[in-house]
Design brief:
This protein is an alpha/beta fold and about 170 residues long. The chain contains 5 helices and 6 strands; from the N terminus they run αβαββαβαββα. The radius of gyration is 15 Å and the shape is globular.
Length: about 170
Amino acid sequence: MLDPLKNYLRNRKLKQASSTSKSNGVNEAKSIGIVFDGVDLDARDVVVKFAEKLKKQNKKVRILGYIGDFEDNNSMLFKSYNKKSINWLDIPQNSEVTSFIETPFDILFNLYEVSPPHVEYIVKASQASLKVGIPHENGFHDLTLEMKNNYNLATFIKELTLLLNKLSGVHVN
């Protein structure tokens, strides 16, 4: 019953915060943001390895993971937010999220197979020039890659970087 109201208020807030997207291409990408499901322990390993590869190419990389009911113990290799920091409009209220959204990444990778509303908010509100991820009914990415078979995070990252390389002519992985 409250969902239509929540969606309306969340979208109104997004209109105030959203940026206009423009693609600089991967060849100029100096900063990359990654948002992912940090509840999945296997995903943590895959994402951290992907970030390390990008950093070896002198890319500035920031990772933001949603960790569900877990508490951030500062030992994680990525910045995080949890269920407690999401308000009733499904908007994360956390300094890490705010900082992430305000960072003007050249590319933002949304590595969710299905983006929950709080992740959709982060991606839409992000100041990133190019937002990439899985196709979504609300169309909040600039570039999408649909997986024909079962979603596998490592495969998705590999295929998406191959696509970006083809589009820009620059090797990312």
